[in-house]
Amino acid sequence: QRKSLEVLTGSISKTNDIIRELQEFGAVTPFTSSELIEQTKRLKAFGFEELVDTTKRLSEVAGATGADLTGIATAFGQIRAKGKLQQEENLQLLERGVDITTELEKITGKQGEAFASAMRKGEIGANAVNQALINLTSEGGAFFGGATAQADTLNGLFSTLVDSVQNLARTIGEILEPVIKSALSFATKGVQTI
């Protein structure tokens, strides 16, 4: 995950910062840092720049609704890639318990059929959707604290345990990496010789 994120961001230091922030966030949510990193990579591929903030916000939504984070991230990514909200992505979000339409109606000032018509015409832009996400996950928003509220649940505690084991494995792997690489190179050369 680290290497692929480095390729996507083009920076080792930026990658390290992203991973550190997501590990800290994962420790207080029902999501493992691996899950969060995967979604961050997906968001980067869709063209998002505020990776950690967006991943955290989408995690808040997923935590509050109990929906899968991957599906929510994909729907928001498709909106970002298209540059506008279309009914297909709106339905994907509604199926996952995410009513972004109500917040967008407040932002745009268009209600009911006027909003639906604007969406059909492609007038509800990705920036408005992003603002709706920010509004919904900020203090006072419907999904504020949705992920962190799940941290003390059985699923949240189990996720934290899994994440801790994965972090331990990563640490051991980093320490032993030179020895393991050497052994694998030696074994590969031996097999090739045979």
Draw up the topology in text.
Layout: H1 2-9, H2 12-26, H3 33-45, H4 51-65, H5 69-82, H6 87-95, H7 101-108, H8 112-120, H9 126-137, H10 154-193
Task: Explain the overall architecture.
The protein is mostly helical and 194 residues long. It contains 10 helices and no strands. Helix 2 packs across helix 3, helix 3 crosses helix 4 and helix 7 packs across helix 9. The radius of gyration is 20 Å and the shape is elongated.
Structural descriptors:
194 residues; 10 helices; mainly alpha
Strand content: under 5%
Count of helices? 10
The chain-level mean pLDDT equals 85
By DSSP, the count of extended strands is: 0
Report the radius of gyration as a whole number of Å.
20 Å
User: What is the 3D form?
Assistant: elongated
Mind describing the biggest β-sheet?
A: none
Proportion in helices = over 70%
- N- to C-terminal distance: 34 Å
Structural class by helix and strand composition: mainly alpha
Question: Low-confidence spans: pLDDT under 50, at least 5 residues?
Answer: none
H/E series: HHHHHHHHHH
